[in-house]
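Hi all, long-time lurker, first post. I run a small reading group and we've been trying to get comfortable going from sequence to structure in the token notation. Rather than ask abstract questions, I figured I'd post a concrete chain and ask someone more experienced to write out its structure so we can walk through it together at our next meeting. Sequence below, copied exactly:
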Amino acid sequence: MKISFIGLGIMGKPMAKNLMKNGHELYVYDRNPAAVEEMRAAGAHICGSSVETVKDVDLVITMLPNSPHVKSVMLEDDKLADYMPKTATFIDCTSLNPVASREIAAELAKRGIDMLDAPVSGGQPKAVDGTLSFMVGGKEEVFNRFKPVLECMGASVVLCGDVGAGNVTKLCNQTIVAVNIAALAEALQMGQMCGVEPQKIFEAIRGGLAGSTVMNAKAPMMMDQNFEPGFRIDLHIKDLKNVVDAASTVDAPIPLTQSVLEMMKVLHKDGLGSCDHSALLKYYQKLTGETLHH
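-- Answer (accepted) --
Happy to help. Here is the structure in token form:
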């Protein structure tokens, strides 16, 4: 399949590579020369503009920071929707407010273009491995047609409902992940201060009810003081702000989400926004003056 892939960042680049590994023909453009050269070496068609990437493709995929970027690329500045074939489909893997997904889909529908919102979970490691989880919204027949494409990049691909349902589900995911990471950091810090080694705490509880994928991924990073980003604090702040916006429209109570968002905002002000979200630990280390260790 001929695919235009827009957004070759920390997640998009490995996702695009996995599409090529599975035999798809990719057309790409990016303002980052290093990303372009890496994709050229991997076998992608390098285009001179974003418009050029969509002119003769079956599918356009975006993986961008937030809704203004998607609207800019598809509808406002680059206006890719006006240049892509009417037979092509648009899949947005960006995590954004579901209201924005529905607005974009409505504009594309006026042009006869189908859309799926398909945000992902798993961070950079799973993007590299091709084992992301896709939460998808859109028409069932469109989903069924492109599910094999998404399976080139993910181990789980689930249709959650109509357009926007993918991003509602992703916001639920981001709430659960954020609160889990905060609770993990809080518990390990408290346990160490009470005289038990964090590694022993981790080993003892990881196989019980408290165990989770979050714990397995983030506890070792916390104990190593390794905050290289798999998913940045600033991006999680963006997602939790979208949770707040979505929740406010239906008066859903989200006190835990609000608390973790405020913690992340403190870390951003401390210059840690580009760190992995496991750096929530640093919030507790700042309060206690004590560094977590093995």
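A couple of things your group might point at:
The mean pLDDT is 97.
The radius of gyration is 20 Å.
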